[in-house]
Amino acid sequence: MKKTGIFKPYTPAGECTLKTTGSGCYFIRKAGKIVYIGFSGTDVKKTMYRHLQKWKDKRHPENRRAFFYDRVTYDRDAVTLQVVFTKTSKEAAALEQILILKYKPQDNASKLDLFSAGVKRDILNKYESAVTHKASDEELPF
Fold first, then answer.
1. Residue pair 25/44 in contact by the 8 Å Cβ criterion
2. Domain 2-131 fold
3. Of 17, 31, 43, 45, which is most buried with the most CB atoms under 10 A?
4. Position 68 confidence tier, pLDDT thresholds 50, 70, 90
């Protein structure tokens, strides 16, 4: 994995500062604190810069087919970015989940709840399988 330094999203001339792209995770920071973590399996630059654009959202609350989360947009002058490039989209998705569980960013609340529930479910499944497992005579250490 290749990790960039922390950078401003745009140059003073208004050009995108990130020139390379690929699959990976990105951090959006306000005042140095991570407020959002996202990933893209194909074009992290395009996905990340969407958070800095303003447009009319088709998923407006009046739209009956609105998704359960709102699109998060940020003021381009108030944030800094950082990217971790991965080799595959699966690595990017797994890395995003790990980073959200580690940093608990404020704007990833819905994903944090979803990932936390998955981790708790996995732990409970492992516990239940351990409780129901009975050791045979061959497995006993003495």
1. yes
2. GIY-YIG endonuclease (3.40.1440)
3. 45
4. very low
